[in-house]
Amino acid sequence: MVLCLTLALVATVPVAVQGHSPSEPEHGINNSTFVTLWSLDADVAAHSDTDALVTIGSQTDVPFDQPPDAVRTWNDGESEEFPSTGLDRSLVPAHASPRDSGVIRDAHATISLVQPSTQVHLTDNEGTLYVGTDGNVTGFIDYRVSLPATRTSDDGNVTVTHSLSESTITDTRLYVDDQLADSASGSQTPELAFEEGDFASRYSTNSTVRFEADIATTWEREREACATYNNTTATCTARNQTTRERTQTTTVSDSIRVRPHDIELSGYVGQFPDGDRGVVAYTPEPWVGFERNTATGSIHGVWRFYTARDPRWDTLEERTSDSTERVHSPVHPLTVHSFPMEVGPTASPRSDVAITEAFGGERTPPTLPDSVALDVVESPYTATFGIATRWRTHAEDHDPSEPLPDDASIRAIGLVRGVEQTRPLDEFETIPINESTVSLRVQTESTDTGTTSLQVSLSDAQTGVPIRTSGRDGYLTVGDERVNTTANGTANVTIPREQGSVSARYHPSAWWRRNPAYTGSQTSMLVGGSVLDVLGTLSQFVLAAGLFGIGVFLIDRITGWGVWPPWRFQ
Fold it and tell me: How far is the first Cα of the chain from the last one, in angstroms, to the nearest whole number?
């Protein structure tokens, strides 16, 4: 009896359905790719496989440099996995909002996929679903039909029955900001398209995408009443039948906020006197980075990617006229996520390209779910909407005046799969970058005040045109003092007379912020003091050089490196 009672109690307790990722690859995805796609799944400790990527992907999560194409392959296959339920039950995602309308019950139209798309995690409070300007929305529609039960009058003379004639999804529609983007005839899993012209703006503006479906059900109501009643036999000998057809329709919908993502490049290009190429590229939106078609190297911003199932589709509610039961979902849509993994952009290889500045605003890093084993930056990061770079030239006979190749361009990559732009560099604003020269001369020396007055001059090294820094970016330093030149390219500064050696250095502004731009330059001279002071300064220099030479000589003798005497390498 105890055992039977226990089994009965267990049978009445609802079993919790745990959502989980698929365990086996499908839809043509190989195993090594499959294991890298499920960042929300439970990692397997000490898992090993002959395929190294399977081993790594099973034990931890794998970041991607770009949105992987395998997501599209998987989702295209999953859209065919939605079950056909019939009219006596409805499968409802937990996050859906089903509605009843007459005989149509538990009806919903729920967005299951938006492709291509990427959920961008800018901060904890700033997350946006970026979508391509051309893409599609896949929806799942389900409902059940509950006709009124047969009714018979108390005396048995009148019977009313209902029978289903037809029930179907008649139309599906897709709206972008209340404007019709696409429509199709009825389907339980329609795929509707949107394109660039459907959005009010391609940049920095969120849009509402709404998916709608019309459901129509037609049924017959038959009323049968006794027309002739035999009191002797207490039976009905003749009946009248009336039939009336009824049709009921309802509209169900779901909506989602998105931001169209596109790459619109702007920037500057310049050539340094040594032949290096300067390229500044920026966009109004976060992006992956860019590369040049005529140079080795690439630039990658702070963003990396991971993929994971949408947990809202882990389970479904199976609703009938008698019960609601939670069941494991046969469909597991994959979503792409982007997050900041670096504090700033990176260049590769560093021997060919360097990053000189990144800009785009500083943000507090987001927090990823605990089950995502990936490293997010811990300190504030630069969103890198713009990146300034310097591409080195290694040819010794390179002509600095050589123009850009006719086919020179850069290819920029967005955060959403397939979003990129190739733009010729000759469409960027060209900034000439010239050499500068700085000089110092003594104006006066005062023994009374113990000071020396100097004039510093800054000019274009080739043309001699004065360079003005006052009121602009860029400045000079004379010793420890910061000064700016006037329109004639000069500035005056007073220093202590006994200072000895003094240096002047030009710190130019970023080359893309001035036209023309200039490289930095410096000069030094000995000022102040007597001849003995000058000789003392020289003797200190000679003493330091001598000590350095003795040190190198001793190290060479101890280690046997063969670096002494140094002139044999000339």
Answer: 103
Phi, psi of 317 (to 5 degrees): -95, 120
pLDDT in tens, 227-259: 877 877 778 878 888 999 999 999 999 999 999
CB neighbour list of residue 7: distance below 8 Å, 6 or more residues apart: none
Compute the distance between CA of residue 79 and CA of residue 423 in angstroms, rounded to an integer. 36
Q: How many CB atoms lie within 10 A of CB 399?
A: 9
Rounded alpha-carbon distances, angstroms, from residue 103 to 114, 169, 232, 391 = 31, 14, 42, 69
Look-up of token digits 């990527």: 53
Q: Cα separation of 214 and 209, whole Å?
A: 17
Whether the CB-CB separation of 160 and 223 falls below 8 Å is answered with yes
Q: If phi over 0 gives left and psi between -120 and 50 gives alpha, with beta otherwise, what is residue 463? A: alpha
Amino acid at 472: R
Q: How far apart are CA 175 and CA 258, in angstroms?
A: 12
Report whether 524 contacts 501 (CB < 8 A): yes
Would you give the distance in Å from CA 359 to the centre of its chain? 16
What does the DSSP assignment read for 426-476? GGSEE--EE-EEEEEEEEEEETTTTEEEEEEEEEETTT--B---TTSS-EE
What tens digit of pLDDT does each residue of 317-372 get? 999 999 999 999 999 999 999 999 988 899 999 889 999 999 888 889 999 988 88
DSSP structure class, residue 342: S
- C-alpha–C-alpha distance, residues 108 and 252, integer Å: 5
Residues in the chain: 570
Q: What CA–CA distance (Å, rounded) separates 71 from 308?
A: 9
**DSSP string computed for 151-168:** EE-TTSSEEEEEEEEEEE
Instruction: Kindly tell me if the per-residue pLDDT of 476 is higher than 70.
Output: yes
Please give the backbone phi and psi of residue 20, each rounded to the nearest 5 degrees, phi first. Answer: -160, 160
Helix (H) or strand (E) holding 553: helix 531-559
| DSSP category for residue 23 | S
Separation between Cα atoms, residue 456 and residue 475, nearest integer Å: 12
Q: Burial of 435 by CB count in 10 Å (0-12 exposed, 13-18 middle, 19+ buried)?
A: middle
What the block records as the tokens of 458 is: 């800054």
Q: Is 48 exposed, middle or buried (0-12, 13-18, 19+ CB in 10 A)?
A: exposed
Among 500, 458, 465, 459, which residue's Cα sits nearest to residue 483? 458
Q: Record the tokens describing residue 305, joined without a space.
A: 């990617």
How is residue 63 written in tokens? 């970041």
478-491 burial, b at 16+ Cβ within 10 Å, e below that, comes to bbeeebebeeebbb
DSSP class of 534: H
Rounded to whole angstroms, the Cα distance separating 53 from 31 reads: 9
Nearest to residue 38, comparing CAs of 369, 301, 414? Answer: 369
Residue-wise pLDDT tens digits, 511-538: 999 999 999 999 998 875 544 455 555 5
